[in-house]
């Protein structure tokens, strides 16, 4: 019988391709997995291609809910700066588009703003958001050093009529006023978050709303439907996934 796990947290586990492959095997046997946290790992283009297959396999299962929340923040998803490769991101977005379910997705601090790949990356992301029939509602692109020109392209490609409610652009090269002006055409329902205007932050005041920064530590609460790993070597992570999987009847 399939797993009843709803949340899988593998943050800070040094996960690469092998670890993602083990997680994808869990996904393929789970119709209930809704939240997947892979933040602060080493998931590159090859790992994203493996993850894309896992999402596609889960999406084809009858009655599968699909991954509603996906956190890939703080991973080198486009590879190393000297060898940037957006192919893994493209494969992932195609899988998410073919099996629409995700409502909250984080690509914060993943290197998307690298000059060699930033335009194709944000074009693919904008296309996915615009065409996603499931309707992604929250998109985190914080900490990617996206420049104003590239942000304006993102706004243009997003166009109007998306179901997006939150777009986090903090930690990029645009302040709140400029971001609000750029993305005003996308829709009034979109909460665009950017760094405070320079004049408003002259005294070094932190975010007045008290919002956690992108990639902050996940909620420690665990209702029993969540498998959590932390600070493991990659081999230990794979073993832990398999052990938990056996216990849950994967």
TrEMBL record:
Subcellular location field: Cytoplasm, Cytoskeleton
Gene3D superfamilies hit by this protein: Ribonuclease Inhibitor
Bias (Low complexity) ranges: 199-225
Gene Ontology CC: cytoskeleton
Lineage of origin: Eukaryota, Sar, Stramenopiles, Ochrophyta, Dictyochophyceae
Region Disordered: start-end pairs: 189-227
SMART domains assigned: LRR_RI
Main localization (coarse): cytoplasm
Keywords carried by this UniProt record: Cytoplasm, Cytoskeleton
UniProt cross-references to InterPro entries, sorted A to Z: DRC5 (IPR052410), Leu-rich_rpt (IPR001611), LRR_dom_sf (IPR032675)
Name of the protein in question: RNI-like protein
The organism of origin for this protein: Florenciella parvula
